[in-house]
């Protein structure tokens, strides 16, 4: 059997890739995600998380998060309804399992934007997931961004910053690191990771199978060219 025979047995839809973006609170994950989704909204499914934190002004249920009670969240934990979940500075956050599995099965890539403990759970449960760690240019800049964002009290900002120092020690567990200094460069780097991952061999099996086919129109032109060259040489 030729080496490429298996290429033709590719299932109709290749499973999508799971991309996990993590990093300290305030590093710019949500900002990068919004831009990336602007470019890739047709091929990348953003997983909407569930949380017990109260909505911030302007945040919408079902768009920014599913805002639920502690009881509802714990009931979902009990029925294994999360791909991952974690407690972060006094609230629960989690990724509902089913929509992620469904999108991956449909061949869509999926993006999670989650904190570090949850990302490490995904790395263990889904070893094929692509893990991307976002870092700030400095801790001073991280604090500056949280202060300017103005969505948390000073006390909560200090808690998030203390957590950030611990989280950055976990950076070695991730495949890629993107520095979010200048936003445009960070978005480009993030997009480069997605582009490169989409060119990995398992995703390119159909392209290789296609490369081994013939096109009758080009074959006919080739025959004419061959004949012309042969005549010119005789
Ligand atoms: N490259 C950047 N330069 C300057 N400011 C930035 C940059 N990226 C994001 N910001 C700003 O920093 C603040 C925090 O960004 P964002 O909310 O996206 O962070 P996050 O990592 O999603 O935070 P959290 O984890 O707390 O949800 C926002 O006000 C955002 O506008
Ligand atoms: N483990 C998970 N972490 C999540 C999820 N959704 C969001 N997050 C992260 O929580 C913190 C705080 O978020 P905020 O909206 O209150 O600022 C931040 O790092 C988010 O990325 C999730 O489903 N699981």
TrEMBL record:
SMART domains assigned: GuKc
Keyword flag Transferase: yes
Lineage of source species: Bacteria, Thermotogati, Deinococcota, Deinococci, Thermales
Protein's name according to its UniProt entry: Guanylate kinase
PROSITE patterns: GUANYLATE_KINASE_1, GUANYLATE_KINASE_2
A GO cellular-component term linked to this record: cytosol
Compartments in which it is found: Cytoplasm
Class of the enzyme per the UniProt entry, highest EC level: transferase
Native species: Calidithermus terrae
Keywords: ATP-binding, Coiled coil, Cytoplasm, Kinase, Nucleotide-binding, Transferase
Main subcellular location of this protein, as a coarse class: cytoplasm
Ranges in a coiled coil: 147-174
């Amino acid at each position: 059997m030729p080496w490429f025979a298996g290429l033709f047995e590719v299932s109709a839809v290749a499973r999508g890739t799971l991309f996990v973006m993590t990093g300290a609170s305030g590093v710019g994950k949500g900002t990068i995600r919004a831009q990336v989704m602007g470019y890739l909204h047709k091929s990348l499914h953003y997983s909407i998380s569930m949380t017990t934190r109260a909505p911030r002004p302007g945040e919408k249920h079902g768009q920014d998060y599913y805002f639920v009670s502690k009881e509802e969240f714990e009931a979902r934990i009990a029925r294994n309804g999360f791909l991952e979940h974690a407690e972060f500075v006094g609230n629960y956050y989690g990724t509902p399992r089913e929509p992620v599995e469904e999108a991956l099965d449909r061949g869509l890539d999926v993006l999670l934007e989650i904190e570090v403990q949850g990302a490490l759970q995904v790395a263990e449960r889904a070893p094929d997931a692509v893990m991307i760690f976002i870092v700030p240019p400095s801790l001073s800049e991280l604090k500056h961004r949280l202060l300017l964002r103005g969505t948390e009290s000073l006390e909560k900002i200090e808690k998030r910053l203390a957590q950030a120092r611990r989280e950055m020690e976990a950076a070695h567990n991730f495949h890629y690191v993107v520095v979010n200094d200048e936003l445009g460069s960070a978005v480009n780097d993030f997009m480069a990771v997605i582009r490169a991952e989409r060119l990995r061999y398992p995703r390119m099996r159909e392209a290789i199978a296609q490369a081994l086919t013939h096109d009758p129109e080009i074959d006919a032109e080739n025959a004419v060219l061959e004949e012309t060259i042969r005549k010119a040489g005789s």
